[in-house]
Amino acid sequence: MVHIEKIEKRVPFGPALYVHCGLYDVHFDDLPTKTRIEKNYLAWETVRKKTNPYFVEGTGFEGYVVGTCRTPDAALETILNANQHILDAIARLYHFEGCFKSSLIKTLIGEISDPEAIHIWSAYLGAELGRLRVHVPRNKSAILFQNQTYQIVSLLPSMVYRKATCNVVQNYAVGYLDNGVSVIAPTQSKINVDLNMLKPGQQMAWLVAANIGRFGHPLVRNFLDKFW
Hints:
8 helices, single chain, about 50% helix, 3-stranded antiparallel sheet
């Protein structure tokens, strides 16, 4: 049996999407539902919020490290390293562009909606997920976990959007199964990751891990990343 939790909150970069939809006369009722991008995002959110084997609330990356990381601490280290690689690549590429690097970070945490920064974060998210997917076919636990995740997603309602005052609001659902896959021994409890528990040098990598998923949102991918 699938237990479903409904969520209502603002869409990432909602004000920018609100403007975009007005400029291009986009009607949410006409949008295709249950697209590949939508299914992937619902799977990401389901892992992040409901079926996460390591953290009380995770990042979405956890489904890719099932079977290779046996403890929450090992998963945390792997995810931090992966997102530090993204930060290192950005630092090298934009070494002499301090203002743009600032725009990247502000866009990451939702303070601004810089179009170029959105496109770059979306590209890095796709590249990192592509790198992680390479290892999944050799990982039976990850295959089982991902199959179960998409079984849950297949039973979830489609995402629904509505315009609010200069913003866009989304309604969607995440879920979990009664007999969900357990990949951590009972003695290993989930941990609640907080910036204060991390070393200063790890905190930015966790901010990336915790926020980069917004660049995989269906509306962000379909409109802001492609056309804005």
